[in-house]
Amino acid sequence: MAKKKTKVNRPKAIQPRGFRDYFGVEVTERAEMLSAITEVYHRYGFDALETSAVETVEALGSFLPDVDRPNAGVFAWQDEDEAWMALRYDMTAPLARVYAQYRNDLPTPYRRYTVGPVWRNEKPGPGRFRQFYQCDADTVGTASMAADAEICAMLADTLEAVGIDRGDYIVRLNSREVLNGVMEAAGVLNPDDPDAHAEERGIVMRAIDKLDRLGPGGVRALLGAGRKDESGDFTDGAGLSDAQADLVMGFMEARGADAAATIAALRGLVGGSASGARGVDGLEEIAALLDAQGYGPDRILVDPSVVRGLGYYTGPVYEAELTFEIEDEKGRKQQFGSVAGGGRYDDLVKRFTGQEVPATGVSIGVDRLLAALRAKGRIGGTSVGPVVVTVMDRDRMGDYQAMVAELRNAGIRAEVYLGNPKNFGNQLKYADARGCPVAVIEGSDEKARGVVQIKDLALGARLAADMETHEDWKAQPAQMEIARSDLVAQVQAMIARAEG
Amino acid sequence: MAKKKTKVNRPKAIQPRGFRDYFGVEVTERAEMLSAITEVYHRYGFDALETSAVETVEALGSFLPDVDRPNAGVFAWQDEDEAWMALRYDMTAPLARVYAQYRNDLPTPYRRYTVGPVWRNEKPGPGRFRQFYQCDADTVGTASMAADAEICAMLADTLEAVGIDRGDYIVRLNSREVLNGVMEAAGVLNPDDPDAHAEERGIVMRAIDKLDRLGPGGVRALLGAGRKDESGDFTDGAGLSDAQADLVMGFMEARGADAAATIAALRGLVGGSASGARGVDGLEEIAALLDAQGYGPDRILVDPSVVRGLGYYTGPVYEAELTFEIEDEKGRKQQFGSVAGGGRYDDLVKRFTGQEVPATGVSIGVDRLLAALRAKGRIGGTSVGPVVVTVMDRDRMGDYQAMVAELRNAGIRAEVYLGNPKNFGNQLKYADARGCPVAVIEGSDEKARGVVQIKDLALGARLAADMETHEDWKAQPAQMEIARSDLVAQVQAMIARAEG
Fold it and tell me: Which residues are in coiled coils (chains A, B) (predicted)?
C-alpha cells in the first residue's frame, strides 16, 4: 500500500532563550540552601509569605530597582477581560501590593520572608538568565534603625549558616541620606527646591554607581567635565567644580580606621545638611546596636564606598560581599563580589494608598550564592545514585522488587533496574551513569543457594583507576557474596565503608 | 501657596483574578509536605529536575491532559523576536521537552521527580485557582510493568509519609488497554481500521468519565440512545446496542472479591482482543509485583471503576483516593476523593523526535492533599510567633538587641519589638497577634536590679479565658521575675512548659 508522505513539522526540543534546566544536585543543593536561609529568617521572627508569580501590571508598576538596567522589562500579557498581567520581576513589588491589600489585618511591623523565582524580560547573556531565585526578608512599618541593624546582623548569620566562613564575607553599610547631605553641601541639592539640579544629581548617582568599574579617576572625570572611554565615546559629566567633586569623592573615600572615624569624617562632609545629619546619626545608631550584639567590623562595616542601589533606597543601604578570590574564565584571580543587597525604602505602599510606610529589607541572590559555594568547594559534589538491584532473570521481578522494598523500608535509596535486562553490561553502565554506590546481583544459582552478590561500585571504579591498590582489594573486595537474609545490613555496611 | 490639585490614579492593591497569596503556616506546611514527598521519591531512586516556568508554545503543544477541560488554555505571550512563550500548564510537557533535548546524555530509564507551580488560563471559581502546585514522578524509557507497579507502591508510601493513615486512602488501578479490548469486543474498535467508530468511542469515553457524577444509569443511557438531564437538555448517546453497552458496563463493574477474580472477569470481557489480553496481562503482572512487596488490596486495588484520565493514558492508569469523610459547605458528609493520578503514556517525546518512548508517571495535587490533611486536623495549627523582647526604654535598644541575639544563638525564635514603643499595650497586642509564646520585659528598675520579667503569653491567654484556673495560676504564674543571666534557660523552660 503506497503511503502518502506528509511533511512533519516537529517542534524543537529546546527551552526559550535565556531560560535553563536544573538537574539532580543542582536542584537539591538549592533547596537545602533555601531551607538554611529561611531557617535563619524564621529564627529572627520573620513570617513566610508566598504570592503568585503573576501580578497585575498596574500593581507591579513600571520601575525596576536596579539602576544599571533602567530599560529592563517584564513578561506581560492580556487576560481575557483585557486586563494586563505580568510575571513579577522582584519580591518587593508584590510585598507592596500585599501590605497595601491586607494592611488592616497584618501585624505592625509586618516582618515577612519570601523565596521563589523572579523573571526579567532582558536580553539573555552568558550566565545571565531570565528566571532566577530571590530570597528576601523585609520589615514593613517601622522607621527604627534597629530594623536595619537587625537585617545586617541576620545577613551575616545567614551567610555563615549556608557555609561561608567568617572572614570570607563582609556586610558593608552606607546611607543614601548621607549622600544627599553631601550633595546638599556640594550645592547640587536644595531641600527647598528639590527639583533643581536633578540632572546633575542623576549624573552624580550614575557616576558613583560605576566606582567598581571605572575606579576613582573615572568617577572623578564624570563628576566634572566628562569622560572619554577606551572606544573614544564621550560621556557628559555633571559639571561639578573641583571643590564640589572633592566633597563627593570624599564621601566615597570616607572609610576610616574604625566606625567612629568613618562617622566623624561623614559628619564633617555633610556640613549643615539636616538630611546628612539624620543619615550620619542613623549609621551611628546602627553601628552601636551591632556592637551591642557582638557584630564587629570583621563582619559588618560602615563603608561609604558601597554605592550600589543608592539611587533606589532612601536611608541605610547594605550589601554583602564575598571577599575570597576565585579565578575567572581567563584564570585571573578576582574577588567573588556581591551576593546580597538591601536597604531602606519609604515609598513602599505610597503608590497604592498615598501613605508613606517606612520599610527596610534585604534580597539574597540565591543563584550567585550557590555559585560561590561551588567555587569554594562547599557543595557541588557528584550526585549519589540509588543502590541498584540488577535483573538477572526477568521472570523474577517480584523477588527483585521485594529486595528494594526491604532496602527502602530501611531508609536506603534503592531501585530495580527497569530497562531492558538482556545485556548485563548495560545494567552496570546504567548504575555507573547514576553514580550508584552498590549493585545487588541474584542469578538463579544465587537464588538456589539463598545468597546474593553485592558489588561496591565506588571501590570498583577506584580499583579500575589505580592498579597499585591490589593489596587493598584483597582486604576489601569490591564484590562479596552474602546471605540473602543479610541484604539490608550488608548493603548498609558497604555504603558506610564507601562513605567513611 | 495655592496647590494645584491633580487627580491621582492609584493602582488597585489586589492580585489578578484566580490567584491568591499564602501566609505563614500555609507556606511552611506546604514546604514540609513537599519535602516529605520528595524524600520518598528520592528514596525510590528518582532524581530531581527543575525546569523554568516558561516554555515555548511550540514545545508545550496545545493539548491538556485533563479531558474534563478541553478548552483549558495557557498564559502565553510573544517574545521580542516574535516567538511565542507560555507558562507551563503541567509537568509532563516540560519533561517531554527535556527528555527529547537531552536524551543522549540522560540515563535510560530516566527517573525524575519535579515539584513546582503550574498555571492554567481558566475561568477561576471558588477554590479553583489559576496557579497551583504539582509534584510529579515519572519513569521514561521503559515498557516494564514493574515501573507502573513501583509508582503505585510509591504513591501509597508517599501518602503515609505525609500523614494519611493506612485505611484512609486507596490506590485504584485500571487499564486503558483493557478498555480498548472491551470496545473491540463490543465492535466499536477495529484494530485494522483504527479510525472507524471514532465518534462512538469518544462518546463512550466521555460517558464513562462521568460515572462518578451520573451513576451507572446515566452512563448506560449515554452508551445507548442518549440522556436528558435535569434541565431538560438532551445529550446524544453512542447508540450502542444493549449487548454492546452490557460489555462496557461490565468493564466498569468488573471488580471482584480479589485481584484474581477481577482479572478473570476482565479476561472474559475482552474476548479475543490482543490489546485487551495485553492489558489484562499487565494488570496481573502489576498485582503480582505489588503482592511480592507486601502491598495488599487495603492499599492498592485493581478496580476498573476508576475511569478518570482513561482517554489520555495508553496503558495502566492509577488514582489515589482518600476514603475518609469530610463535611461539605452544606454540612453533608462526603468522601474526600482523588488527590493524585497517573498512568502510562507512550507518546511522550514522539512529537519532538518521531520515536515512541514509553513512560509512566504520577502527579500529586499538592494543594488538595494539604486541604485533606487540614480536614483531618493533621496540620493547620496556628503559627507560633517569636519570643518578643519589649522596649521599655527606647534608649536601651542595644540591651534588648543583645537579649535577642542571645536567644537566637540558643536557637530560640526571637525579636525586639520594632514598632513605636510608646504604648506598652500595643506591644502586647502585637505579641498576641503574632502568637508569641513569651514576652520579655526589662524596665529601668529591672535593669538596675539585674533582673528581667518573662511573661507566659499562652498561659496568660488561657487564664484570661478561664477564671476558674486561679489556683493553677498561683502554681504556674503567667509572669515571673528571673535573673538577667538566666534569660535563655528560663525562656527555654517557659516555652517547654507551654508546649508540654
Answer: none
